[in-house]
Amino acid sequence: MATLGDIGVAATINILTAIIFLLAFAILRIQPFNDRVYFPKWYLKGIRSSPLQSGTLMSKFVNVNFGSYLRFLNWMPAALKMPEPELIDHAGLDSAVYLRIYLTGLKIFVPIALLAWSILVPVNWTSEGLQLAKLRNVTSSDIDKLSISNIERGSDRFWTHLVMAYAFTFWTCYVLMKEYEKVASMRLAFLQNEQRRPDQFTVLVRNVPADPDESISESVEHFFLVNHPDHYLTHQVVYNANELETLIETKKSTQNWLDYYQLKYTRNKDQRPRVKTGFLGLWGKKVDAIDHYTAEIEKLNEQTQQSRNPTEWLTEWAPEAREVFWSNLAIPYVSLTFEGFVSLSSLERRAAFRYYIFNLVNIFLGSIITGSAFEQLDSFLKQSANQIPKTVGVAIPIKATFFITYIMVDGWASVAGEILRLKPLIFFHIKNSLLVKTEKDREEAMNPGHINFHATEPRIQLYFLLGLVYAPVTPVLLPFIIIFFALAYLVFRHQIINVYNQEYESAAAFWPDVHGRIITALIISQILLMGLMSTKGAAQSTPFLLALPILTFFFHRFCKGRYEPAFLRHPLQEAMIKDTLERAREPNLNLKPYLQKAYIHPVFKDDYYEDGRSEISGYCHDDSDEECVTVPTKRQSRRNTPAVSQVSRGSSPSPSKR
Questions:
Q1: What are the backbone dihedrals phi and psi of residue 7, each rounded to the nearest 5 degrees, phi first?
Q2: Where are the domains of the chain?
Q3: In terms of CB atoms within 10 Å, which end of the chain has fewer, N or C?
Q4: What is the per-residue pLDDT across 22-57, written as a single tens digit (0 to 9) for each?
Q5: 5: Cβ contacts below 8 Å, ≥ 6 apart
Q6: Which tens digits make up the pLDDT trace of 220-259?
Q7: For residue 159, what is the DSSP state?
Q8: Directed axis angle between helix 453-470 and helix 478-498, to 10°?
Q9: What is the pTM of this model?
Q10: From CA 462, how far away is CA 400, in angstroms rounded?
């Protein structure tokens, strides 16, 4: 059983660990040779240049400006200085809203902690329940005197905890409602003001029925020209390139070697570089390196040209081009029932849900149930069966000491370690010394990373759960959670501004999941409080807790109906406003060239493929006032279309669909 001294020792160790990590980061980040590790986002944006390119030899590697060492903590105000609108422009809405999860934690738990420490802690401390419990051989520590365990059985003081439970619930719901409203408005404003994106005009179609007279491309073009003549612009067949990934990686490596030898030749044109064609270039015939790798790339291109196969299609709104999970596009329709998501954001949200369930069952419930049972094993063996629920009721809040230690280790120290980036730092210098040949290699060696939503969000939700469960039970845990939210907000804001390079933008589509899991944590806390108070002889006050989960559930239904539609579909009013403004700004806008190559599989995105695609002409020219000819078709059957059709495209087609 942990005592105040044990908690103090653990706190000292973890605080010192966090301070060491932060100090190491503050010193390492100002060294010129680490600049690409701690500011990769600015390099990728092309705004920051390497300090290694100027100055003396020593100043290229070590910061000789001793004044900067005195200002080693200036990264903290710098991380907080950038306003939210600028942060959205810089890093995207996903990153800005992700930070709001930490802000939501602070908004919820700071007032709750103040209220709990000013009311509940004195009520708990001045009771004598644990003195009586010692007579029944129930173990406890001094820290438990601050918890509900110290309230005597059947005491009227439980009314205080009941009133506080209502106050905590109402405040949490109020904060969640305001945040939901704020994030929904941010999402709509972002979609309204952001630049044109291909997914705003695109639907994904899979499982197209086979036609003996037409290819899939011809069949799709014919179907949409006939059935959606006013909205169809163009289409793009998505190829199953899953089997080509190894071949394409080989091609990228070969291209990289070609770039390296071309760069080497430009620096010394007196002698063309040569390479051995044997294993790893250690033996074999010596040939001209540039000619050799050029020929190898041409061979690889011809293979890639012969290996394209169309996937089967299913109709749904297309995700943003950057977040398409290409491997799943080739999954047949019959295999799409628990899986088959085609967007990275959907996959991350599903993984986050599963990780959340894992944390809930294994870390939270598992630690409480098994830990309490083993700690009170002697009492279980010596007392009658009807006394066991009472013992468990007393033991559950005692587990707060374990979670306090868990928060300090997992929350404080690990978050401080996140900003240090020790692993990327080591790997960057190893790659930069041994493997980097070109500037592209150096960019890849930076490894800026991104927000791992599927891993970090469930961890945040565990702290919401712990805070809401223990707020009316053991308020001493709340300051540790507040420190976690504050430190994590500071660290991740710095990382988002200077380090992370997000893979995609979902316009905060994950917020309904965040809201729903906090609501779940709130209901769990209410049910556990009812169970705990029922074992404490609070028969008069416990029934009044029954209304809390019911009210919370209806609050969730209200938020779901009021705000969630903004995260599922773009409001028609907003879409029409954007279309009208776009037509006014660009009356001769032709979206077809813009959309024609938007969804090319990444393995095909090279100059060779792009040049080949540019030779393909569509069914209409770019001139908007030229009429289309008869819809081309080779179909002899009439299964889908009653007759051959003619369509003309108007001078200003609606850009709302593709």
A1: -65, -40
A2: 4-194+349-570, 241-298
A3: N
A4: 899 989 998 888 889 999 999 888 888 777 666 666
A5: none
A6: 787 778 777 777 777 777 666 655 666 767 777 777 778 8
A7: H
A8: 160
A9: 0.74
A10: 14
